[in-house]
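We treat protein structure as text, and this decision shapes the records that our systems exchange. Because each token names a local backbone shape, the row as a whole describes the fold. For reference, a complete record is included directly beneath this paragraph.
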Amino acid sequence: MATLLDFKTVLTELRTARNVLPQETAKNFLGFGGSKVYKRDVARALGQDLIDICADCVNALADRSTARFNFNDEVAVIDALLNIQMVTKPKAQVQRLHAAALALRGHCQTTAAINRVDAVSTRGDWNGLKAIDVVMAELNGNAGRLTAKQLAGRAQLIINNAGDPANIDDGDGWNSSRRAVVAEPLERVPEESRDLVGAAKEASLDARQVGSLAICHATAAGMINILGRKHATYKAGGRGPVLREQARALAVQLLSDHNKLYLLHFRCTAQADGHSFMLCMNHDGTVTLSESWANPGGNGLFLELQAGKVLRGRAEISNGNAIGAVNRIFDESPAVRTQGYTRLSQAYGDSVRYELRAHDEHAEGHDCGDDCRANDADISIVVRARQLTRPATVRNRLTELRGVYDAIR
């Protein structure tokens, strides 16, 4: 098993190997039919990716607050880097970098995963600050000539791209080593989300279209990565009453924790897609309710996108009221579940909308009623949560994400 010193030694070697890379040349080919030449910028980008991976490993071993980290997961990322032709058949210019990468790969293969309960609370860091407000303030900075709706559309797109809506159960959290292998902004966006970028960026600057960017599952997937401490995901729930009870118990347990603050994501589905919403705990004992939902009319997480943000009362409720509402969404009675849903979410006014069976809900003149509700065994609620990271970390992540957005031409 590799030690912290082993990883630090490789980190130093990686930085040195990156810094001493020679200037590129068009004369020395790699032997792939003369189609590849040594390019210093590409080699430096690869070196930085390897440095990021190694730094994550060092931080995981050095920081007792890291709850979960699987070193073996990094092996696949390193393999992908080494599979690039220039590194697979290294020239003299990149042999030192290649050797350091192999050493890092070996350390990752032989180091046991970290899996422990959160040892450190970030609650004190949030005294006087609310996580949702920090996100909004950062994304609304440098407005330039953008209108309020355009700014909100940009913010929505940035948050969508912080997670992976095609795999919202990804448990790794924020991880800088998942960045692109090459310096291309679109490569930093999950592949399944790239259809949002381009057309979606254009839409985010069109006040008539920005509401269509408010995607509930994508927003929740992004927010939990932006606000959550990496590598520690708490998850419970699923289809049927037994698994739903596990989701309820987890949510109540976390909301009742007086020592830590969490962002909780509720994904409520059945045979149809359902809805996602979030509860974000605050230092003052309140819970901020936040969500987005696909409505071209302009409903979403952001005030500029939704005129009716407080239709059902305050966007913040007490922890006690949040726990009560959470208990109600798991009640046997659909009417009681409606009370819980409408306290925590604004998207729909009836629990049936969160529990739909598969049917053509968009048929002309169709209005979903109770006969559209799925069987109890098909109704699913999954709760995912992470403890809040520190405010400075949130701001740094948002700065990087905003830079990626701004770089997309």
Notes: Confidence is low (pLDDT under 50) at residues 28-35, 176-185, 303-310. The chain is about 40% helix and 10% strand. Residues 40-62 form the longest helix (23 residues).
